[in-house]
Amino acid sequence: MSLPQRLVIATRASRLALWQAEHVRDRLRTLYPACAVELLTLTTRGDQILDRTLSKVGGKGLFVKELENALLDGRADLAVHSLKDVPVDLQAPFELCAVLDRADPRDAFVSNRYASLADLPAGAVVGTSSLRRESQIRSRFPALVVKPLRGNLDTRLSKLDKGDYDAIVLAAAGLDRLGMGERIRSLLDPADSLPAAGQGALGIEIRNDRDDMRAWLAPLVSADTTACVLAERAVSRKLGGSCQVPLAAFAQLAGDTLSLRALVASPDGTRVVHATHSGPMTEAEAIGEAAASELLEAGAETILRELLQNPGSV
């Protein structure tokens, strides 16, 4: 097969999204020195709507639609995403063809005054963009006030610095990637704040008729991270997971054994259902589906049904 001569990467315009796209660009330039790798920067609906939470305006798909349009009409050959923003029910003609090595998957506690969630006084205001984080914070610290926090990373940090929040919770990977790791006061143990499916991983999306792209991108694939996120996304897929559902799934490898933890919670944090499952990494999706079944049997089905019947509750 011939080597690529020119590749165009579709990306969102935020500073973090550009870092991610530039990271993939640089990897491709190393693999294919004669190839011209360019960025196509786009603004998505998810970037434009900042006055409402994602759960109220259509979910994660708002961050990928414009990028997919560029893949469809040939303006771009590939799109780079933070994997936790990619819907688990990705439909033809699109394909998630490469998952790169994962960065730190944990949530980070950021505050100018306090060292951890446990140090916050009753009534302190915590900002987060995620129902998953919100439900787990409410469950552990019911005396705290959790408020929505939208915008790119710089916008969220500026709202904290202006005093709108006493603390905010963000993905550690984003802060690290932008050289802002010093803002992290503490990292939340996954046992206390279970990450979102795919958190910390980058995914590359292509059209599913691009066999050439699949082959060219193959050297970027991380087999270990792919197995973990396959299991995590299988949980979300089986449960109909989206921004409207406080759902978490996190897998780790020890040798060839994959261990998965997952949870579903009510938005107010008063009910949290846990499941764990493990097995060979070659059976990653089956492990995820088994964990999802455990969650349903343990009470998640009731929570999900209530969310479906009363979407305003989220």
Gap from first CA to last CA:
50 Å
SSE arrangement, N to C: EHEHHHEEEEHEHEHEEHHEEEH
- The stretches of 5 or more residues where confidence is low (pLDDT under 50) are 48-59
What structural category arises from helix and sheet content? alpha/beta
- List the strand order in the largest sheet: 2-1-3-10-4
Mean pLDDT score, rounded? 92
Structure description:
- With 314 residues, the chain is of the alpha/beta class.
- 34% of the residues lie in helices and 25% in strands.
- The chain is built from 10 helices and 13 strands.
- It has helices spanning 15-31, 45-48, 54-57, 65-72, 131-140, 153-161, 172-177, 211-217, 223-238, 284-309; strands spanning 6-12, 36-42, 78-82, 94-99, 107-110, 125-128, 145-148, 167-171, 186-188, 202-207, 247-254, 257-265, 272-280.
- The strands form 3 sheets. It has a 5-stranded mixed β-sheet with strand order 2-1-3-10-4, with helices on both faces. It has a 5-stranded mixed β-sheet with strand order 7-6-8-5-9, sandwiched between helices. The chain has a 3-stranded antiparallel β-sheet with strand order 11-12-13.
- Helix 5 links the parallel strand 6 (125-128) and strand 7 (145-148).
- Helix 9 packs parallel to helix 10.
- The chain starts with 5 loop residues before the first strand and ends in a 5-residue tail after the last helix.
Summary, kept brief:
Helices cover 34% and strands 25% of the residues. It has 314 residues and is α/β, with parallel strands linked by helices. Strand 11 and strand 12 form a beta hairpin.
